[in-house]
């Protein structure tokens, strides 16, 4: 027959596995080796739930971001190829330095534009999909790597 | 005396915050100004050079004017859109606009050279 009252030694063990303030941090359960803390289980569930329940708008946003992400990657490659084709037409040192700086800026321009549009279309933004689509489409037109395109045409 | 568990968030000094925002706008403004300076130089010097070479009818006016207008437009857009966001987003916007300015200046340079070679 099992005793009705808990062993007082178990309480002492639980006390030893607690730190002051654990409850405030959501770590009320003793951190036993090999066991999964309740907070970790809750985090896993929270991480899985949004992916399974994406709304059509969220899926559209994800599709827009991925498609434009690939296109912007192509833009970056186009500007890398463009930088290989171009050379500074002058002979002064300062102009040469600024030319190199300009070439560097043109290489990072697609990534910066992409990042800026994503930063300006956060979750709280109204008409988020439209803002992101228009911003990324505009950048695609502005940042076309004409030096490479004309080099291919020529 | 007990120590509070959560300290209140420190509010930035409005004067310091304004000075930092102004400094960012000034530094990026100087960099944008370099591209405007180059474009104005082209606008002033390219037409006489084309005339001297007998190509006066092929001066790429649209590209020359676009070279001056685009850096200004990107800077003003950065100021306008960034005026309602955090300092980090302002810096990102100015940097993206500056990079776009550099990319478009290279594109305009190549396009104008390409147009001269056409028939």
Mean pLDDT, all residues of chain B:
89
The H/E string of chain A reads: HHHHHH
The overall strand count of chain B is 0
Question: What kind of sheet is the major sheet of chain B?
Answer: none
Biggest beta-sheet profile of chain A:
none
Radius of gyration of chain A: 28 Å
Along the chain, the helix and strand elements of chain B come as: HHH
Strand count of chain A: 0
State the domain count of chain B: 1
Instruction: Write down the oligomeric state.
Output: heterodimer
* Tally of contiguous helical segments of chain B: 3
Q: What low-confidence regions of chain B span 5 or more consecutive residues with pLDDT below 50?
A: none
Computed structural class of chain A = mainly alpha
The percentage helix of chain A is 55-70%
Your description of this structure?
The complex is a heterodimer of chains A (154) and B (119). Chain A is mainly alpha-helical and 154 residues long. Chain A has two domains: 8-51, no CATH class; 54-153, no CATH class. In chain A, 68% of the residues lie in helices and 0% in strands. Chain A contains six helices and no strands. Chain A has helices at 8-16, 38-52, 56-85, 93-120, 128-142, 146-153. In chain A, helix 3 (56-85) runs antiparallel to helix 4, helix 3 (56-85) crosses helix 6 and helix 4 runs antiparallel to helix 5. Chain B has one domain. The longest helix of chain B has 39 residues, at 14-52. Chain B starts with 13 loop residues before the first helix and ends with a helix. The mean pLDDT of chain B is 89. Classes of the chains: A mainly alpha (154), B mainly alpha (119). At the A-B interface, helix 4 and helix 6 of A face helix 3 of B.
């Amino acid at each position: 027959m099992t005793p009705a009252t808990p062993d007082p030694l178990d309480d002492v063990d639980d006390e030893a596995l607690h730190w002051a303030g654990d409850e405030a941090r959501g770590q009320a359960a003793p951190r036993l080796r090999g066991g999964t803390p309740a907070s970790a289980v809750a985090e896993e569930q929270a991480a899985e739930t949004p992916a399974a329940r994406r709304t059509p708008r969220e899926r559209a946003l994800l599709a827009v971001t991925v498609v434009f992400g690939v296109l912007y990657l192509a833009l970056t490659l186009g500007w890398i190829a463009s930088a290989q084709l171009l050379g500074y037409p002058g002979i002064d040192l300062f102009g040469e330095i600024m030319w190199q700086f300009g070439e560097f800026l043109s290489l990072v321009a697609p990534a910066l534009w992409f990042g800026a549009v994503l930063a300006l279309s956060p979750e709280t933004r109204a008409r988020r999909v439209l803002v992101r689509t228009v911003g990324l489409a505009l950048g695609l037109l502005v940042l076309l790597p004409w030096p490479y395109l004309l080099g291919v045409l020529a | 005396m007990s120590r509070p568990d959560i300290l209140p968030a420190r509010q930035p000094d409005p004067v310091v915050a304004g000075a930092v925002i102004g400094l960012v706008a000034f530094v990026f403004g100087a960099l944008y100004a370099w591209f405007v300076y180059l474009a104005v130089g082209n606008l002033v010097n390219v037409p006489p050079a084309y005339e001297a070479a007998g190509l006066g009818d092929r001066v790429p006016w649209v590209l020359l004017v676009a070279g001056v207008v685009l850096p200004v437009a990107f800077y003003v857009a950065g100021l306008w859109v960034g005026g309602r966001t955090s300092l980090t987003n302002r810096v990102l916007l100015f940097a993206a606009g500056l990079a776009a300015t550099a990319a478009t200046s290279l594109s305009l340079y190549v396009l104008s050279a390409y147009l001269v070679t056409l028939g």
